Amino acid sequence: MKASRCRAKTRKGTPCQAPAMKNERCRLHGGKSTGPKTLEGIERIRKAHLKHGEYTKEAIANRKEFNALLRHLKETMNEIGDRNSKIDIKI
After folding, report:
1. DSSP 3-state of 16
2. Mean pLDDT of the 48-58 span
3. Does residue 38 fall inside a structural domain?
4. Which residue among 2, 48, 72, 79 is least enclosed by CB atoms within 10 Å?
5. Nearest Cα residue to 29 out of 8, 55, 60, 43
6. Structural domains of the chain, count
7. pLDDT by residue (tens digit) across 14-49?
8. Containing structural domain, residue 5
């Protein structure tokens, strides 16, 4: 016995020939998900979409803080370099 067929229409207008699931649609025409409803489900989906975290608020704040410290360090080193160039050290 053959499995029941999907009742969706193709772009051509003919019935889809794929085998149907319990909802009488195939895996391609099963309908859109309405998404998670619980807070746990929403959090799970949010974490699943995170690929690398490079653009999270925390990562951006860390980069800004690091760059500010680096600028300060460069300014300090330039000041030290300027002072050393004015001082004539003879050995």
Report:
1. coil
2. 88
3. no
4. 2
5. 8
6. 2
7. 989 989 888 788 888 887 677 889 999 999 988 888
8. 1-30
